[in-house]
């Protein structure tokens, strides 16, 4: 597929997040209620937003894994979902083949 992940292991998490966002072509944000409750996930999202603003690159790709009503989303998340690329995760097995192809294509852009 030609896609690599940047796992957060081996160094201070904040430094690792900044380094990974800067070295990555795209930052995949898997939108769930758990993500919205995590301070580290908010930090990672903010770092990706700063990278996009500083470089002018479209670095964010949202994967809408579970339905979260728009009134529960932080304003910057809602704005970026509307303004950026996003893909919805199909919860039926028959739609997943096409989903993985679309996700791989979006990550390569």
The first-level CATH class name: Alpha Beta
Let me know the number of strands: 3
Q: Note the beta-strand portion.
A: 5-15%
Radius of gyration (CA) equals 14 Å
**First-to-last CA distance:** 13 Å
Output the number of helix runs.
Answer: 5
Shape: globular
**Overall number of structural domains:** 1
Helix content: 40-55%
Structural write-up:
By secondary structure, the protein is α/β, with parallel strands linked by helices. The chain is 50% helix and 13% strand. The protein has 5 helices and 3 strands; from the N terminus they run αβααβαβα. The chain has helices spanning 13-23, 33-37, 39-55, 75-83, 96-108, and strands at 27-31, 60-64, 85-88. It has a 3-stranded parallel sheet with strand order 1-2-3, sandwiched between helices. Strand 2 (60-64), helix 4 (75-83) and strand 3 form a beta-alpha-beta unit. InterPro entries: TIR_dom, Toll_tir_struct_dom_sf.
Label this structure with key terms.
alpha/beta, Rossmann fold, three-stranded parallel beta sheet, 3 strands, 13% strand, TIR_dom, Toll_tir_struct_dom_sf
List the topology elements.
Blueprint: H1 13-23, E1 27-31, H2 33-37, H3 39-55, E2 60-64, H4 75-83, E3 85-88, H5 96-108
Helix pairs in contact: 1-3
GO cellular component, one term: membrane
Subcellular location: Membrane
Main location: membrane
